[in-house]
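Before the break, one more example. Copy the sequence into your notebook; we will annotate it together after we see the structure.
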Amino acid sequence: MKKVLAALLALCIVVLPATGYAAAAAFALNISAKEVLRGGEMTFSGTAEDDVVLKIIRPNQTTFYMDVIEPTNGTYTATITIPETQDFAPWGVYNVAATSGSSTVNKTFSVVEKLGEGGTDPEEPSNPGNGNGGTGTTPPAATIPADAGDSTGSTIKPELGQDGYMFGSGTLASAMGSAQGSITVELPAATGDAGSALNFPTETLKTLKDKNLDLIVTSGSSTLRFPAGSIGTSDTSASSQVRIVVNTVLTSDAKNAVNQALQSNPDYASTGVVLTATIQVINGSSVTEIHHLDKPAEVTFKLTDDQAKQLHSGLAGVYYVNGKQLDYVGGKLEGNTFKFNARHFSTYTILEYSKTFVDVPAGHWAESAVKSLSAKHIVSGVDQQHYAPNRNITRAEFATMMMRAVDYTGKAADSAAANPFKDVPAGQYYTDAVTRAASLGIMSGYGGSFRPNDPITREEAVVTLVRTVKYFEVKDTGKGAPAFADRKQISAWASAAVDQAWKLGLIEGDGKQFHPKAALTRAEIAVMINRLMP
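Here is what the structure looks like once it is written out:
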C-alpha cells in the first residue's frame, strides 16, 4: 500500500509543474515571417482560451488591420494579404498587438522592398508603441511651412508634401479672413480612395475653436465636417501636427472586418460601401491617436449611381464595425448622398438590415412598418424570432420607442434635466428615455408618477405622437375632422390631438371608431411611428 501511495505522490509531483506550465503558456502569438513583400501574405496564429483582438499598426502609426478572432479548440489563426500600394502598405516596421483577456503580446514584422535586406526580428520588437494604437513612435514628421497650400476665399487647397497633403498657419489665416462659419479644405478627389494624409499644425484646432469655425475636409466621395472644438488634444506645442487619413476603398482589410462582423449577424447584408478614418497628433517622433470627438462630426458619403440604385433606403443604415459587433449609427439616404454623425472614427460601413419575425409574416398589415423600424433600430423583437404584434405596450416601452424615433431625426437637443417621476427609478432601461421625453414636453405623468408599467392607451399615445410632429416632416392630408362614432369617449385633454393626428394621417381607427381607452398593441405603435418617419 505504501508503494502505491508513493507512486501516486511521485506522479503528482511530476504532473503539477506541467499543468502550471500549460496554464502560463495558454496565450501565445506566432507570426509567419519577419519580412514580407507587398502583395505577400502574413499569418498570425497561436493558442488562446478567449477571443483574441489582433491589431496591426503601420510605421506611420495608422491602423493597418484590426480583427477579433475566435479560437477553435484552443488555437487561432488569421492570414492577411499585404496591399501592393505605398499608401496602404508603406515600407517599414509594423507593430502587432494581440490581446486575449488581460494578456497582451507585442511583436513586429517589416514590409520590405526586397527580402533579406533587413527587417526586425519578430521576437524583439524595436518599436511596439503601447499596443493599442494610442501613443507610439514614428520618424519625425516634416515641418509644415506657414505658407503651405493655397487659399481662395475660405477654401484651402493643400499642397503635396513628404508625408501627404498639408497646409500651414499662414494659409489658414488668409482663409479665415473670408470665413463665415467654416473653413473648407479640398483634397484632390483621388485622395479619399487612396487614403492619403492631410497634415496641418495642431495650433489650428485652437484657432478654429476660438473663432468658432468648423473644419470641413472634402476628398472625392466623402466630406467630414468637424464642429469648432470637436477635436480635442492636450498637446499645445507649436511644432506638433494633426494628421487626418480618410479611406473609402473596400480594401481587403476593410472587407475582412465587415465580413467578420456579418458572420454572427445573418440579418445584415453588405453594400460594399465603407469609410475608414483616423485622426492623430504628431509631435516629433511621438504619435497619439484621437479616437473620440468632443462633438460629433457630420460625415457625408457620395454614392455612385449603381450603389444608390442597389440600396433599399428603408433598410439601409450606417454601422460602426466594432470587431464582431455592429453598432448602429443611423444615417439618411437622400438621393445619392448618405449622411450620418460620428463621435469617433474607425471603420464604418453601410449595411441593409432585413429582419423578419415568424409572427409578422409577409402580407401582415404591420409587416412593412415593423421591418422598416427594425432597420432603424427603433423597435425590436421580444426575442430573435418573435415580435409579439398583439401584445399590449407599456408606457415605458412606448417612451423608449418614441425617443429612439425622435433621436433618429437628430433634431432634439440633449437634455440633462432631472428625473421628475417618483416611480421611475434610476438604472432602468427606460429611465433616460422617460426623463428626456418629459424634459422635451413629449410625455407627462399623473401627479408626479409616470406609471411606467401601465399599458398605454390609444389616446395617450396620440397626444405624444402629435407633440413629436415638430421633429418630423409630416404634412397635413387635407382631411376634415374625424367622424368617430365613439368621439364622446375621447378625453377632453386628448380631443384636439386626435383631430390633428387624423388630419396628419397618423391614425385611422377601425374605420368607424377610435377606441380611445383601449390599450395600444406593438403592431399598432409600429404603424403609428412609421407614419411619422420620413
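The first strand starts at residue 30 and ends at 31. The radius of gyration is 29 Å. Try to locate both features in your own notes.
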